[in-house]
Amino acid sequence: MQSASESALGKRTAAEALLSDLPENLTDQQVQQLLNDADQLPVESITASNIRRVVAQFDKKIKKNAEMRIKFDGDPEKFLKSEVDLDEEVKKLEQLSSMPELYPEFIQLGGAPMLVGLLSHANTDIAVEVMNVLNELTDPDTVLDASEPQAFIDALIACQLPELSVELLTRIKEDDSDEDFQAVSSTLSVIENLCDLQPETAISRYFNVPKFIPWLLKRIRSPDKADKIDYNRVYSAEILSIFLQQSRECREMVGRTEAHLDGVDKLLRCISAYRKTDPDSSEEEEYVSNLFSCLCSLMMVSEHQVRFGQIQGIDLAIRMMKERKFACRLALRLLNYALQGCAPNCQVFVEKAGLKTMFSMFMRKGVKGKRASTEEREDDEHCCACIHSLCRFCTGTETARVLNKFTENTFEKLERLLELHDTYKTRVEEAEERFKTRERDDEELKELEVDENEQRFLDRCENGLFTLQQIDLIILRLANMGNEAVRSRLLALLGVKGIATKEVVDVVTEYAQNLGQDAKAEKDELPGLFGALQDQPAQT
């Protein structure tokens, strides 16, 4: 793209990038003089007293440039000066980021459509400069200092910022220069800013731009391991993760094969590179974590769960757990999502010999006498959730294989299960006690509109309530799965360890009470299972 004259000029500015359009007979000295003249123009500071004039001047430069481009179409030398002038006016507006109090007036004066409209400028370098300015202006910390932050973001979105920014993404050729690479970074940053400030509106608008999700999926596709994972690849995976976490519509569409997206397959191919190999850097670790987060979100759609099982996703996750590399724990979490409520995947998991690997993680050394680390508690949660899914949904031979795991080595896994019950019951009770005894400022709670019961529930969840519920659901399921040896030993161990069946019933009852209408079948089923716990032997 660069001519010989450009190479002699060193680092490009946005204005210097215009040189690619110039005829060859313009000398280097003439070009440099034009740029020097532009750089030496005084940059007027924007203030409350002159912002009206600044916006009017900006409008004038836009119209002048458009007029010159039409008048001298095909003769870039004739409209170069107007393009340089416009570029300088765009740069000037970056000053607004340090004066968010002027945002409302900027919007009132019509500055938003002028600025955003330039994203479609024929000269990509002008559009890139606009995006850099928008990145500064939409920084959440800055916007929230404005008197009307939502009005500012609404105005930008109303000017088709989502649509025009995606169009710019498709125009930029990242490999051409560092400036182009940075332009993609700035565009992704603007998208993230809008999603932070107006998540529902921004995600809906971007998702409905046909080219956007395909662009993200293409950008995050995993290269050969020899290639470096660049910043924009990591950022693209993060943006996709945000969209999938917050939008059910996005989750449903991204995984569909008929939409020619097939995100489940594409993301599986990305993570497969890390089955036996660890990421090389913290940046690459973030990339891999975002890929797994994307897949976890897609597993919230039942048809995508089934697709995951059909294209060897379960098998890949099991293999990753066996390798015990960086992806091991991420694969465990993914399996939790893939098995949840999905009977076909539970069957596949057992058929693919996943039980040995899962129970190996389940039987890690206990944490008795010490507080479990955050990672260990997360592993406990995902292991127990997976095992509960297997106990609930497996049928036939697969059910027998699950039960058989609990009979191995004189029922050691039952003992481990009850050990975990004690550990997490204690943690939840301690959280409950702290909530009751801590000093609270009632006025502050009222001001923040904090519901005490909701806060109490959240405190208990943070300290392992969900894991305790999964443990006790496993206990209840095992007592009802038709293996009298397992049931008898389970009841005996409950008695020996001094765990009253009422403890288990109370925990499961609370769990059932908090289930939504979409889980009505499970909610109705659970009370009918309590009877199998009633003939508990006397405690010794």
TrEMBL record:
Q: In which organism is this protein found? A: Vitrella brassicaformis (strain CCMP3155)
Coiled coil, from the record: 414-448
Q: What phylogenetic lineage does the species belong to?
A: Eukaryota, Sar, Alveolata, Colpodellida, Vitrellaceae
Name-wise, this protein is Beta-catenin-like protein 1 N-terminal domain-containing protein
- One GO CC term of this entry? spliceosomal complex
Alphabetical GO biological process terms: gene expression
Query: Which InterPro entries does UniProt cross-reference here?
Result: ARM-like (IPR011989), ARM-type_fold (IPR016024), CTNNBL1 (IPR039678), CTNNBL1_N (IPR013180)
Q: Which Pfam families match?
A: CTNNBL
Q: Where in the cell is it found?
A: Nucleus
Keyword Acyltransferase attached: no
Major subcellular location class:
nucleus
* Keyword flag Repeat: yes
The alphabetized UniProt keywords are: Coiled coil, Nucleus, Phosphoprotein, Repeat
Q: Which residues form the Beta-catenin-like protein 1 N-terminal domain?
A: 27-131
